[in-house]
Amino acid sequence: DCVMLSISFESDFLNLLPLLSQAKIPFLTKERSEQDPIIVAGGAAVTINPEPIADFCDAIFIGEADESMTEIVAALRTSSSKKEKLEALKKVEGIWICSDPLTYHRRIVKDINKTKAHTEIYTPHTEMGDLALIEVQRGCPRVCKFCAAGFIYAPFRERDLRLIKKEILEALNYRKKIGLIGADLLSSPNLSEIMRFVLENGGTSSPSSVRVDGLTPEILDLLVQSGHKTLSLAPETGSDALRKTLNKNFTNDLILKKTE
Q: Residue 231: helix, strand or coil by DSSP?
């Protein structure tokens, strides 16, 4: 009835047509029949700009879909015809029907503790398949001007520490390496406690972001205990003045000091 795709990066737009081709689904929505499935795309890349793939999708979800899935399924069950299903989908907050004029409305999840935000399918046949991924925070308080995360995932939110610890204990049954997801993890007051909790329970952790001005001897020690041998500090530019205009307010001197 429906094929739903999560597209995180613009370069993955190029994978959409080969996927449709292998499923023998016509590329253009106007060329599809009543028997072809409804194609819905979501994810970070289409939240930034849904237009490039609008001709190939029936609908696009803009924003955070955590709470919307039951609404989408209910809309698809309302009737048998594709036209009526699309009319029902139109009423779901965040959905844009691509045949309509673009009305950009980003859906935001108010409480990110109410829905699951961790690895559900464990398989080595995927990127980072050796990790169990757990979301620690969403959005970013820094809002660097070159980075979409601070804008499309605003406002900045942190998940409950007790919930994260519960998810870590469950995930350690499947993977011994925990990938901690967040755009500015070193701003979290709970990061060192989370990393220590993973170690105490027989695992290691890998943070998705490390910002140079947040590095402390304690965090470095926890990274070493987790087996890290390299670290990306992302200075972005060699110019202090240019870096400041990007909202990265740390200096070359600090980068060299933290490197030492």
A: coil
